[in-house]
Amino acid sequence: MIPGLLLAAPASGSGKTTLTLALLRALKDRGIAVSSVKAGPDYIDPAFHHAAGGRPCLNLDGWAMRPETLAAALAQAGEGAELILGEGVMGLFDGAPVAGGLAGLAAGSTAELAALTGWPVFLVIDCKGMGASVAALARGFAGFHEAVEVAGVILNNVASPRHEALLRAACEAAGLRVFGAVARNAALARPSRHLGLVQAGEDVALDDFLLAAAGIIAAQVDLDALRRVARPARLSGATTSPPAPPLPPLGQRIAVARDIAFAFTYPLLLEGWRRAGAELVPFSPLADEAPDAAADAVYLPGGYPELHAGHLAGSPCFLAGLRGAARRGAVIYGECGGYMVLGQGLEDAEGLRHAMAGLLPLESSFKSPQRHLGYRRGVTRAAGPLGPAGTAYRGHEFHYACVLGAEGPSETALFDAAPATASAGPSLAVGQRNGGVFGSFLHLVDREAC
Asked: Which residues are designated catalytic?
């Protein structure tokens, strides 16, 4: 097994993504075959991992994935690698507080992944405005749960050499190992928008940033020490045969929308379809490309269609191709952004309505954005391409769109969907289906274990 480690933090915004990217590029520049994984549901950070390390980044999700899917993903991440570098999600112990989580840890949390794999955790702490209290914070995290090993800390956003000396002395006096201290540096900042960082595919200065960040971090973090502490995962559940794909293939020849407006796809999903014998044919709606005319299925993943709504509304080949696919009986599935494009219209942040494909009874708007975020369990309400009625999936929702009026009649809803925790809200009928056209705001990660 390939040794691995996890970068985590007390809270979001501590700098773990920037450090992960810089470490990936620095290790790669040293000639080390380094792979990466991302804890929890995330489409944006893994694309940056890929750019930094040169290898696709896979998500590992203790709540949304079956054990066999997790094991297969971990094995795939280790193929041809000397080290696996994992990036956590939110704060170390943050996740879904559901009953039955591993060792009582929040489901989907970085801590749960650490307990599942046995990988050591390196706590990235934003030290702005902090002195000796850093040791109390780190020691509290290190001793919080016996199933999670915090191997040490990486001090981030350090103001000066004097500040660093104070922080190091406090940590060392508390028995906490310091693996690096990263000075405050405006060169390590990246642009962001409403769902996170501006996508890797849109960041024209990304490679220059990675080169500079790798040099900065290599000089301030002990890479060799990190590698020595890494250890192979102990995750069980590997099987002699690959697991069933997260979603059944939508068809034999699947046209997959792929550009900066439709970039939110999980590699495990696409790889699962290929492994099941499906042929995937990419196309770009932003380039006004129609889905392949020979495809018996079309997949419109999530992304940022709201930023390109006018462009998409003015793409006659793309929209006519979708409508033609529906007329010939092809299966068409849209998730989140893809779902909105299958609707009647999309209102942008300025209140301007753009006509979409008109294949589902949905009007969506970003004029008054509202955040929808969290794990979801979706159960199909009728038999279809996703399986028989009652087929359960696990996934997540993250968007700022509002539905104008009703999402559609409940009798044609796609899922009964509920949050991971009952206290987060009731089960609701969500999504729409119209013949072979269907979709919802849910991003499906995996079918539920039987």
From this structure: 336
Q: What is this structure's pTM? A: 0.93
String of DSSP letters for 18-38: HHHHHHHHHHHHTT--EEEEE
Q: State the span(s) of the chain assigned CATH 3.40.50.300.
A: 3-232
Q: Which CATH superfamily is domain 3-232 in?
A: P-loop containing nucleotide triphosphate hydrolases (3.40.50.300)
Nearest to 53 by CA among 87, 3, 99, 104: 87
- Across the chain, which has 450 residues, the per-10-residue mean pLDDT values are 96 95 97 97 94 96 94 93 97 88 90 96 97 98 97 98 98 97 90 70 86 96 98 71 90 97 95 97 98 98 96 98 98 98 96 97 94 94 97 95 86 94 80 97 94
Q: What does the DSSP assignment read for 181-226?
A: EEEP-GGG---EETTEEPPGGG-TTHHHHHHHHHHHHHHHB-HHHH
Other CB atoms within a 10 A radius of the CB of residue 211 amount to: 14
**424 contacts: CB under 8 Å, gap ≥ 6:** 374
Nearest-5° Cα angle at 237, 236 to 238: 100
Q: Residue 351, Cα to own-chain centre: how many angstroms?
A: 29
The enclosing H or E element of 309 equals helix 309-313
Are 86 and 75 within 8 A, CB to CB? no
253-447 falls under which CATH superfamily?
A: Class I glutamine amidotransferase (GATase) domain (3.40.50.880)
Using alpha carbons, list the distances in angstroms from residue 274 to 7, 52, 244: 31, 26, 11
The count of other CB atoms within 10 Å of the CB of residue 288 is 17
